[in-house]
Amino acid sequence: MAEISKPMAWNGEGSIGASINRRQVSLFDPRHRSLHNLIHSRPSMLPTLNLTGDVILAEHLSHRFGKIGLGDIVLVRSPTDPTRMVTKRVLGLEGHKLSFSADPLVGDGSVSVVVPKGHVWIQGDNLYASTDSRNFGPVPYSLVEGKALLRVWPPRFFGSLR
Amino acid sequence: MASSFWNIAYQQAMKSGVLVAKVYSFLHVTTNYLAFPAYAFGPSMIPTLHPSGNVVLAERISKPSRGDVVVFQSPEDPNKLPTKRVVGLEGDSVSFVVDPGKNDESRTIVVPKGHVWVEGDYIQNSRDSRSFGPVPYGLIQGRLLWRVWPFQDFGPIGPPTTT
């Protein structure tokens, strides 16, 4: 149980107001669909995801089989607000040792942490404007609810998320 | 003109298929949004639950509150589903003895936002928030409502019984 509290500049974190699914004709909630589209419009994942909003295709199967790896962009239920989903990148699996800067705006006060068993470490690509594991600590693996596959909108950025 | 064998077979298959789809949808919606059965075993919830196993009904409708017995995904191992009682909600101050075998040193923790503190009723043999910390709301799967089996104890699952 890692307790990390740092004075970070709060700038909101990724995603969802709504999730639209135009592909499946189903009564079921996005949690139980195997695929759904997701709108992300926050600065926490710049430059990978745009500020003005991207629609991403995400799938809900990989995490059930343990196929979430380093560098994947995942949808995670926020540990601080269970009604919100956040979109971040997995930067550490259980057992990994990570160092990060306590406050990237101020200096290099570096903190080292080992990701405990059953948890993952998630971070937004935009370190200056992301509330992620550097604020709320490693996240239990069960909170991971999906993996982002590719971006479907805007059309000129259609394709994989790298 | 009489229908051929395959026409009739096809119609029967369609009817059965629709029935299967309806039953599946009903079960899916019920177990994912309303209530689901569960089998609970283990010593950590004596005397509320029998260590040798209980079939219980859990519901997903209400938000967990203090005193509820909940089933949740373990923060340590996503394949495990422990059943414990919610002892503290977000903002509560919880005190516990850190290592009962060693000494009486106790610690007080404020439950962070979005989390709950769970403890087993049988504190001496329970792996709970005292080991793995507060549990985020998102991991909670349901609240235990009713015990179905063993039949002698058919009835609601309520507050901890004081001995």
From TrEMBL, chain A:
Write down the PROSITE patterns for this protein, in alphabetical order. SPASE_I_3
Q: Can you say where in the cell this protein is located?
A: Mitochondrion inner membrane
Its BP terms in the Gene Ontology are:
signal peptide processing
**Highest taxon, organism lineage:** Eukaryota
Q: Which UniProt keywords apply?
A: Hydrolase, Membrane, Mitochondrion, Mitochondrion inner membrane
The residues annotated as the active site are 44, 88
What cellular component GO annotations does this protein have? mitochondrial inner membrane
Q: Does the keyword Hydrolase belong to this entry? A: yes
- The answer to whether keyword Protein transport applies is no
Task: Kindly give the Pfam families that the UniProt entry links to this protein.
Answer: Peptidase_S26 (PF10502)
InterPro entries reported in the protein's UniProt record: LexA/Signal_pep-like_sf, Mito_IMP1_subunit, Pept_S26A_signal_pept_1, Pept_S26A_signal_pept_1_CS, Peptidase_S26
Question: What are this entry's molecular-function GO terms?
Answer: serine-type endopeptidase activity
Quaternary structure annotation from Swiss-Prot or TrEMBL: Heterodimer of 2 subunits, IMP1A/B and IMP12.
By sequence similarity, the record places it as follows:
Belongs to the peptidase S26 family. IMP1 subfamily.
Q: Its biological function? A: Catalyzes the removal of transit peptides required for the targeting of proteins from the mitochondrial matrix, across the inner membrane, into the inter-membrane space.
Protein name as annotated: Peptidase S26 domain-containing protein
Q: Which species is this record about?
A: Brassica campestris (Field mustard)
UniProtKB/TrEMBL annotation, chain B:
Catalytic residues, chain numbering: 44, 84
Which species is the source of this protein? Brassica campestris (Field mustard)
| Keyword RNA-binding belongs to the record | no
Any GO BP annotation: protein processing involved in protein targeting to mitochondrion
> Which CDD domains does UniProt cross-reference here?
S26_SPase_I
What is the role of the protein in this entry?
A: Catalyzes the removal of transit peptides required for the targeting of proteins from the mitochondrial matrix, across the inner membrane, into the inter-membrane space.
Q: Name one GO molecular function term.
A: serine-type endopeptidase activity
- How does the annotation summarize its subunit structure? Heterodimer of 2 subunits, IMP1A/B and IMP12.
**Pfam families (alphabetical):** Peptidase_S26 (PF10502)
Q: Which GO terms describe its cellular component?
A: mitochondrial inner membrane peptidase complex
- Mainly resides where? mitochondrion
Question: Looking at the keywords, is Hydrolase present?
Answer: yes
Sorted keywords for this record are: Hydrolase, Membrane, Mitochondrion, Mitochondrion inner membrane
Show the SUPFAM superfamilies listed in the entry: LexA/Signal peptidase (SSF51306)
| Name of protein | Peptidase S26 domain-containing protein
**PANTHER family per the record?**
MITOCHONDRIAL ATP-INDEPENDENT INNER MEMBRANE PROTEASE SUBUNIT 1B-RELATED, PROTEASE FAMILY S26 MITOCHONDRIAL INNER MEMBRANE PROTEASE-RELATED
According to the entry, every stretch annotated as the Peptidase S26 domain falls at 25-96, 106-149
Subcellular location(s) per record: Mitochondrion inner membrane
